[in-house]
Amino acid sequence: MPMLDAFIPDGALSAEAEDALLSQLTDILLRNEGADPSDPRVRGIAWVFLHRPAAVFVAGERAREPRYRFIASVPEGQFDDEQRAAMVREVTDAVLAAEGGAYPADPQRVWVFPNEIPDGTWGAAGLIHTLADIVEYVTGDGEQARAYAESRLRARRAVSVS
Description:
By secondary structure, the chain is of the alpha/beta class. It has a single domain (about 5-120), classed as 2-Layer Sandwich (Macrophage Migration Inhibitory Factor), CATH 3.30.429. The protein has five helices and eight strands; from the N terminus they run βααββββαβββαα. It has helices spanning about 15-35, 40-45, 80-100, 130-140, 140-160, and strands at about 5, 45-50, 55-60, 60, 70-75, 110-115, 120-125, 125-130. A four-stranded mixed sheet has the order 2-1-5-6, covered by helices on one side. Strands 3-4 form a two-stranded antiparallel ribbon. A two-stranded antiparallel sheet has the order 7-8. A hairpin with a 2-residue loop joins strand 3 and strand 4 (about 60). The longest helix is centred in the last third of the chain and has 20 residues, at about 140-160. The mean pLDDT is about 95.
């Protein structure tokens, strides 16, 4: 399930707006990954790491308005092109809305990088977990999880080859 590195400058958002945004971003990532954001088991493995850049420079000068960077990492096969594009658009829109009009609503200030971690390289709890392992954890059905993972990975790898 997703891991998100959120780079939000200190003071860019109120504490309340930032907390609401990070919860909303969790929902966006889970939904676009094909998971149910209301499922507590799914939410429990969706982590957000908040980073505070001391400063962001644009064209060699300190930026006047906040700049945001989000790196979303999911297991290979979880995003297709449509899901990836929707996730980027929704994250951008959510960030600009969270500012509440304090800055110009310029989507160029929000960069989103969706990354798929190759199957067999997702490490947690001292172990490597495949997509099938993660889906089995969520669903409790190993057979269904393996079939899902094989289908998603086959589809993803077919796109990568073409």
